[in-house]
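Exercise 7. Predict the structure of Chaperonin Cpn60/TCP-1 from Natronococcus jeotgali DSM 18795.
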Amino acid sequence: MGGQPMFILSEDSQRTQGRDAQSSNIMAGKAVAESVRTTLGPRGMDKMLVDSGGEVVITNDGATILNEMDIEHPAAQMLVEVADSQEEEVGDGTTTAAVIAGNLLGEAEDLIEQDVHATTIVEGYHEAAEIALEAIDEQVSEETVDDDVLKQVAESSMTGKGTGGLTAESLAETVVEAIRHVESDAGVERDNVTVHTQIGASSNATELVPGIVIDEEAAHDSMPGEVEDASIAVLDVELGVRTGELDAEYAIDSIDQLNQAIDAEESEVRGYAETLAESGADVVFTTDDVDDRISSFLAKEGVLVFDGLGDSDARQIVSATGANRVGALEDLEESDFGAADRVRAQNYGDDDLAFVEGGAAAEAVTVFVRGGTEHVVDELERAINDALDVVATALESGEVVPGAGATEIAIADKIRSEAAGIEGRKQLAVTSFADALDVVPRTLATNTGQDPIDTLVDLRAAHEGGDRAGLITDGETVTIDDPFEYGVVDPADVKREAIESATEAATMIVRIDDVIAAE
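Solution. The predicted structure, encoded as tokens:
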């Protein structure tokens, strides 16, 4: 090669190496964590996010905030993925996971400045995470996870979030009832619980519908608004005059021929209508269109029809009622009918909704959320979905731990105790992991107006004295006490997932020492 330089990267590529790369990535991760830190806890603050089109989102949900932010830095995107993973797996704890990950990065930065190698930090963090998981197991309550505990889990999840005029306590009862409705011997079918929002009333009008709610209106104004003990047909059929695929024209030479054509068309339309009316179906849902003449005839027969359904809505109705989906009218039999205690069409201002309630196979349930503005119902929807997820998680695992920072205090204490038996520089990383976990109680203290250092000292002292110590917010009073006594509890799996996902993201970022970016 004669000493000739070899160019592997294009001239437009940018490359950052060594400490500069580590510092850039860590700084980006810390910035993301800091953006959601103030939302943590019952006194957490909200964020207003405005996109380029002027759409406004007001929330303190960590996953929503991070997803709405226009984040470009690849390392920062990893923390967004932490929140997404936390949300997908257990439904809550997204802010906690992101904040812990950011502080693990901050501690790692200090260790790197002390010439601790990134590999040593990673090994120490993974060892500390294993100790943390053991500590969580030790914090699991011995009480049976019954409805009272589940309500506490739901209420703890929603406290501090936007719930309109409703209290977290009243919403918790609705959430637990919804999850119990979809519980079976096989577990909890969380997907069978949906949240449907409707603007136009106080949030106090939020209710649980034992069935499904879809955005559909009756095919004819004269149709009955409500049908009880309904026999339901679900069709993929166009109910109207059949047309050929070819673009053909027919010449009509006389009035008699025109009348014959009209009579034939009317006969075909009436045939469809009579077939449906005689089938015994009280309510018909179809994914295709229904001719106005057929709708009018069926309205006179007292049949309630909804047409033009989307595929997902049709599948929901089949699941909720036990109907068989039929693709040809001549194939429709009584055995294909589903059942519901009640089907009703209801108008809410400019919106028309169909309610399908109860029935022989009614496995679905809907939380029908009301609110005066779009921002209220959106935030209420997020809060309820998080609560539904954590209640389902707690019910399936049967394990809950104290909230209010008590679990993080216990984890950090155990890690520090175990760190004494770890040799070499890895001990520094393990201890730093414990220090990073202190961000949770410190942030809770800050957000409630308390001194974070004094609060952390008091929490540690109470824990070392054998008490279960969390930072309890009760009205205007903030005290250090046992969270279980105040019903402040979290599913153990939420804490486990937060530790695991935060550790994974932090160690991945710390190991990067070379960033190559193409222009």
